């Protein structure tokens, strides 16, 4: 028997070669893409600096009125940063965090304005009490610092205690102040010590030592005995110690 030679299937070979070529091209494309992405990531800052073409951000504007923050504060903060980069290369998050190091600033929003300016919006903590004679409390009990000379209203409640007790002291200030006003008395200062003992100072300068625990009953006791206290000549009432279960101890000082 004579068998004829089978002709190679040219179409099949062509498809196989084309498929291999496509695979090679895809692998090469992925390699090039990976290389480009790596290059951009490594040199991103340099690329942005080239886009800036040596032009730096040279001005800023405060978009809202502020009570305590001045232009000089922002300028000095930027100087401490070593200045600003250009529009493309400057990281505004760095600027925001630096400005927020001023403790009276609650939050900051920074955005860029083409070609060389920053827009800065500032929200500040508003002091509602003086804390430990040198710091301040915000309305949510946060302790912060503020140059005293920038405070317009210096007639603020005087509170003191450990910083971790700031919320508790603020909360009880409102309660004790309301309680005393009902009795015709004015609260000047409220303090709590490390052991949780309360000290109340009236606007007359009288110190009430309330101790720990429930202070309501002790204030009621003070209101009862206060009119009955006999003050010696040439002296004035200095303190009333209400840390006892009943009664109180009193102290006097020379006028």
UniProtKB/TrEMBL annotation:
Localization terms from the record: Cell inner membrane; Membrane
Membrane topology: Single-pass type II membrane protein
GO annotation, biological process: cell septum assembly; FtsZ-dependent cytokinesis
InterPro entries the record matches: Cell_div_FtsQ/DivIB_C (IPR005548), FtsQ (IPR026579), FtsQ_C_sf (IPR045335), POTRA (IPR034746), POTRA_FtsQ_type (IPR013685)
Chain coiled-coil ranges: none
Domain POTRA: residue ranges: 55-125
Transmembrane regions: 21-40
Alphabetic keyword roster: Cell cycle, Cell division, Cell inner membrane, Cell membrane, Membrane, Transmembrane, Transmembrane helix
Record's GO cellular component terms: cell division site; plasma membrane
Subunit structure: Part of a complex composed of FtsB, FtsL and FtsQ.
Family classification: Belongs to the FtsQ/DivIB family. FtsQ subfamily.
Protein known as: Cell division protein FtsQ
Source organism phylogeny: Bacteria, Pseudomonadati, Pseudomonadota, Gammaproteobacteria, Pasteurellales
């Amino acid at each position: 028997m004579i068998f004829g030679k089978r002709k190679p299937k040219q179409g099949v070979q062509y498809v196989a070669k084309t498929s291999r070529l496509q695979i090679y091209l895809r692998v090469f494309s992925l390699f090039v893409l990976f290389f480009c992405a790596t290059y951009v990531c490594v040199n991103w800052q340099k690329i942005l600096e080239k886009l800036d073409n040596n032009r730096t951000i040279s001005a800023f504007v405060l978009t809202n009125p502020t009570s305590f923050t001045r232009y000089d504060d922002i300028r000095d903060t930027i100087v401490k940063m070593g200045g600003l980069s250009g529009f493309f290369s400057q990281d505004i998050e760095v600027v925001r965090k630096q400005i927020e190091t001023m403790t009276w600033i609650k939050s900051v929003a920074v955005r860029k304005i083409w070609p060389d300016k920053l827009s800065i919006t500032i929200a500040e903590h508003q002091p509602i009490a003086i804390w430990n004679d040198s710091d301040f409390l915000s309305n949510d009990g946060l302790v912060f610092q503020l140059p005293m000379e920038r405070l317009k209203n210096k007639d603020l409640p005087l509170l003191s205690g450990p910083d971790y007790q700031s919320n508790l002291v603020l909360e009880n200030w409102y309660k004790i102040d309301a309680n005393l006003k009902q009795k015709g008395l004015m609260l000047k200062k409220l303090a709590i010590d490390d052991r949780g003992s309360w000290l109340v100072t009236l606007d007359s300068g009288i110190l009430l030592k309330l101790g720990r625990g429930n202070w309501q009953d002790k204030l009621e006791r003070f209101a009862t005995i206060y009119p009955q206290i006999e003050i010696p000549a040439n002296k004035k009432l200095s303190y009333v110690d209400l840390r006892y279960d009943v009664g109180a101890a009193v102290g006097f000082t020379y006028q």
